[in-house]
Amino acid sequence: MRRALALVMVALPLFAATQPLPWLGMSFTRHTDSSRRVFLLVERVAPGGPAEQASIRPGDLITRFNQTAVGFSDDLDLLLYLAERKPGERLACDFVRNGRAMKTVIVLGKLPDAKRPAWEQSIARAQQRRAAARATR
């Protein structure tokens, strides 16, 4: 298992440097409610980005992507899920706005080159958090 994690840690920066990455055009935080359901709270939406074009707004609570609950075990799982997608791919999105369930489709954009270092840093931080959590078990 540790070997597989090491391979992922080495492969991610190489993947990030050689392939176009998908871009949602929003930032969010992962939350768990009292019934242990996971959702993504949209914090910011990039003007003109894929999320804005799909009518996503700050404060929306994303509950599903492509009919799958966003119950990722941690940030790394979520980042890896997104990294498996391709620019131009359609991502069905279920979300809640002001208590009302809604649906939209986000057409993923290409991550701007200027944002690639931040994406790589997010992956590295998520890997460190996961490793620290496993070390305390």
Question: Would you spell out the secondary-structure blueprint of this structure?
Answer:
Elements: H1 2-18, E1 22-23, E2 26-32, E3 38-45, H2 50-53, E4 61-65, E5 68-69, H3 75-83, E6 90-97, E7 100-107, E8 109-110, H4 116-135
Antiparallel strand pairs: 1-8, 2-3, 3-4, 4-5, 4-6, 6-7
Comma- or semicolon-separated keywords:
137 residues; 8 strands; 36% helix
Architecture overview:
Helix content is 36%, strand content 31%. The chain has 4 helices and 8 strands, in the order H-E-E-E-H-E-E-H-E-E-E-H. The strands form 2 sheets. Strands 2, 3, 4, 5, 6 and 7 form a 6-stranded antiparallel beta sheet that branches. The chain has a two-stranded antiparallel sheet with strand order 1-8. A hairpin with a 2-residue loop joins strand 6 and strand 7. The longest helix has 20 residues, at 116-135. The chain is globular and about 40 Å long.
Would you kindly provide a brief summary of this structure?
The chain is about 35% helix and about 30% strand. The protein has 4 helices and 8 strands.
The level of helicity is 25-40%
What would the principal axes of the Cα set say about the shape? globular
State mean pLDDT (0 to 100 scale).
84
Gyration radius over CA: 15 Å
> Separation of termini?
15 Å
Low-confidence stretches: 1-14
Separate helix tally: 4
Biggest beta-sheet profile: 6 strands, antiparallel
Q: What fraction of residues sit in β-strands? A: 25-35%
Structural class: alpha+beta
Write the H/E string, N to C. HEEEHEEHEEEH
Strand elements, count:
8
